[in-house]
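pinging the channel bc i need a second pair of eyes. not urgent but kinda urgent?? the chain im working w is below, pasted from the shared doc
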Amino acid sequence: MGNALTLRPLGKTGLQVPALCIGCAELGNMPETFDYSVSEEQALTTIRAIFAGPIPFVDTAASYGDGESERRIGLVLRELGGLPAGFVLASKSDRDLTTGDFSGAQIRRSVERSLRLLGVERLQLCYLHDPEHIGFEKSMAPGGPVEVMRQLQAEGVIEHIGIAGGPIDMMTRFVETDLFSVAISHNRYTLLEREASPFWDVCQAHGVAAVNAAPYGSGILAKGPSAYPRYMYGQASEDMLKQAFALEKLCQEYEVPLAALALQFSLRDPRITSTIVGISKPERLEQTLALALYSIPEELWLKVKDVTHA
């Protein structure tokens, strides 16, 4: 399947991953976030397909469905007798979604619950997730989330620590501590948004593997602006909609799926190690690979710059 499936080093972790990573947020059944539900039966069928498929990099989080994504993945892993050889399974430690507690003690509870739900003895890669809820200083405070994650790493519970969050200025500060091996930015590097571009340079400078999540802007660049006029889990701005319709028209002229253009925008950036694409149905695996391989003329890439704020 070409370069999208070629394994490459995940920064300095020693792990090998492809340019595509399967995101499992939708599989946690989060209708308030994604505007649709995913039944347990559909989720389990999809997860079985993922672990039988050609993309050996899977991403989830404690907060996805408040443990539901991890629980469903764990059911399938138990069926399989453990994580299939060659697969890298990443999760994220989270605040308590009910109380908002984001203390070091809560991070330990979060990781312990993830181990229990997934049915694994250790996490290959675990990110501190959405620290914008308490900010950089509290995250880094003595006894706080980062210190506890480093303790868990020293205990062998977590192999590699990553950072995953929103605000780019905050994410940059975390990467500059040199305490993290991998960093995820989401919805900030797409055909419609370039805010994360300088962040990828910071990751490179610090030897941190850069992972780009949500190349479709959570749906608008996959389903199209008419069908799904939402960006980053909310209504898209008029400016973004205008750009999205212009991109859609360009793609129609060149007979290229808008989703292929959106996905390959991330895949073709050499600074990005892997791109996370969420899926909710088994057939999305093959469709994602087809989009990654779709032939896009260079002329179209040049015209993209004319209709977006590149």
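so The longest strand covers residues 158-165. and The radius of gyration is 19 Å. — does that match what u expected or am i reading it wrong
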